[in-house]
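#structure-requests
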Amino acid sequence: MTPSTDERFAAIRDEFGPDSLARVEEMIAPGGMPRHPLQAGAKWILPGISQKPWHDPRSDPGIASLADALEGAHASIASEHESAWRTNRTAFSDYEHYLTRQDDWQSLHLYRDGALIEDSASAAPTAYGIIEDVAVGNELICPLLESHFSTLLPGSRIAPHCDLWNFSINLHFAVDIPDDCDLTVAGETRTWEEGRCLLFDYSFEHSAQNRGTRPRTCLLVDLWHPETTIPERQALTVLVTRVRQLMGEGR
């Protein structure tokens, strides 16, 4: 860690107690943490987080409130996205994952770089409002990551990979799902049910495919893992932000 990071960590310990960052310190200690073999590609594994690939989106009250809000507004969200896709394609862009960029994987961001994307409010007002009021307003969203409409074009595939860590968790809200689409996490394949949410730990190896004849769209929201604490979230935000600055990354 750098001196500025050490100072921020010390301030968090002063507020929350000397042991409040013990798991974060263990995570960044030399040698790293033991992990499930299917988490081998992740950079950081916070100890004490359940090594469980799939989660029930109703098991945590905060995440359940977001899932309920999205599912209750499915018709409006789907209609607004379809209109934007048809009439405002310039609002979408190739999705840039930390490992790759794909032109057959299109995105419309609602939240990124720690802030809402105000330009997206007119294209997707219902989803934008829910992300603003519930995910951001209740501090469920991980400010290190994002929320975006994820559209896989027909015949596209997201290759198996692990995301960077286990202290956030990925909510998939199924907006428009053709036949022959699926998501595989840690070797278990599931299909999206239109208008419903799936929740999984993307530090486990995962992949997705659209073998259908029209685009597949989900709204993705990167949330804090519910098993993390407030001081840990503060420290992890400081840590990852500083690492990105040192690496010259924009986010």
